[in-house]
Automatic annotation (TrEMBL):
This is Tyrosine specific protein phosphatases domain-containing protein. Transmembrane segments: none annotated. Residues 129-209 form the Tyrosine specific protein phosphatases domain. It comes from Hypholoma sublateritium (strain FD-334 SS-4). It comes from the Eukaryota. GO terms for molecular function: phosphoprotein phosphatase activity. Pfam families: Y_phosphatase3. InterPro entries: Prot-tyrosine_phosphatase-like, Tyr/Ser_Pase_IphP-type, Tyr_Pase_AS, Tyr_Pase_dom. The lineage of its organism: Eukaryota, Fungi, Dikarya, Basidiomycota, Agaricomycotina. Gene3D superfamilies: Protein tyrosine phosphatase superfamily.
Length: 280
């Protein structure tokens, strides 16, 4: 059995009905990055309903838009490229009272046939080493987009935000990991959050596979298509070690690739965390 074969639907629905997952009609793979315990700041947890991560919002319903406003979200950051939006005909939604900001990690030129062929080959292998190379590309290009999200955190500590890419796994997973690292969340919990995409994307399995079937590399190779969406716990654990070794960890990355000062990073960390509520 392949580790990306379909999951039991009852199991999927049960997990999706509980935190950290949030139900936003028309959107998949939605979850809250709140209530993760900081291992470095005793008695502190990440602020609930402040960071929400998801897959693309292009199919969001009116009920889903109302849910976003109910959550206190004032900004949505879309990390997808112009190429993806055009290719899949998935435009940015309009949500009254919510600013939807397009902040692509990759520019149009990063989607040349040659670049995409190489990227798809890496995805198709399913190997951890391939994902480390892919995630390095995201880090190398993502400074401006990730900086925009974290400036919102610095300037608007009381206004929630949602960030997403297409599947809500790779680009979204990297900025989620950076945020949780800043909060002092341990690598085990960060890796657990990443791996939840395995369940979060399951309702859209057929749509995802249909999209991939139109790509030449995946059209006749189902195994490669499945590997494209691996989100294994051990992949994120390996990435976090790579992140420390190559980029110096979250704070050093934000100084070098975003241009934040020590003071700004400290303010962002303070805005991410709240005192842990007493147990009932």
């Amino acid at each position: 059995m392949h580790d990306l074969d379909p999951l039991n639907p009852d199991y999927v629905q049960d997990v999706l009905s509980k935190p950290p997952f949030i139900n936003i009609p028309g959107v998949i793979n939605v979850r809250d990055l709140g209530n993760y315990v900081s291992a470095k700041e005793p008695g502190q947890v990440t602020k609930p309903r402040y960071f929400v991560r998801s897959a693309e919002l292009s199919a969001i319903t009116e009920e889903g838009k109302n849910k976003i406003k109910e959550l206190g979200i004032t900004k949505v950051f879309d990390l997808r490229s112009d190429t993806e939006i055009r290719k899949y005909n998935t435009p940015l939604p309009e949500i009254d009272g919510v600013e939807v900001i397009h902040m692509p990690v990759f520019k149009t030129e990063d989607y040349s046939p040659e670049m995409m062929a190489k990227r798809y080959q890496l995805y198709a292998s399913g190997k951890t080493e391939a994902f480390l190379e892919l995630y390095s590309q995201i880090l190398d290009h993502g400074g401006p987009a990730f900086g925009a999200i974290l400036r919102h955190v610095k300037d608007k500590p009381d206004e929630g935000c949602l960030f997403h890419c297409t599947a809500g796994k790779d680009r979204t997973g990297i900025i989620a990991a950076i945020i949780l690292r800043l909060a002092g969340v341990d690598d085990e919990q960060i890796s657990h959050d990443y791996a939840l995409t395995r369940i979060g994307r399951e309702p859209a399995r057929e749509m995802i596979m249909a999209r991939l079937s139109k790509e030449p590399l995946f059209a006749s190779n189902n195994e490669a298509a499945l590997n494209m969406f691996t989100c294994r716990h051990e992949t994120m654990k390996a990435f976090l070690g790579h992140f420390d070794e190559k980029y110096g960890g979250a704070e050093e990355y934000l100084k070098r690739y975003v241009g934040f000062t020590e003071e700004e990073i400290s303010q962002i960390k303070n805005n991410i965390l709240i005192p842990r509520p007493p147990r009932l």
